């Protein structure tokens, strides 16, 4: 279980980097999908990663 914990820490760092990149390329002057689809997809992936990490932590505590 310790290996899974270390892998999840690496995944969290990757998610934080992806979130920073997605926010930095976001066009705040025009928030339409056509201008920011890469940013929105990146942020959606970050949300999915964080939610899956949360679910894995809950599941691992039950065992």
What's a concise summary of this model?
The protein has 63 residues and is an all-alpha fold. It has helices at 2-24, 33-62.
Task: Give an account of the 3D structure.
The chain has 63 residues and is mainly alpha-helical. The protein is elongated, with a radius of gyration of 15 Å. The termini are close together.
Tags for this entry?
single chain, mainly alpha, 2 helices
* Mean of pLDDT: 86
Helix content: over 70%
| Quaternary structure type | single chain
Q: Please count the beta strands (DSSP E, at least 2 residues each).
A: 0
* Strand/helix succession: HH
Topology:
Elements: H1 2-24, H2 33-62
Helix pairs in contact: 1-2
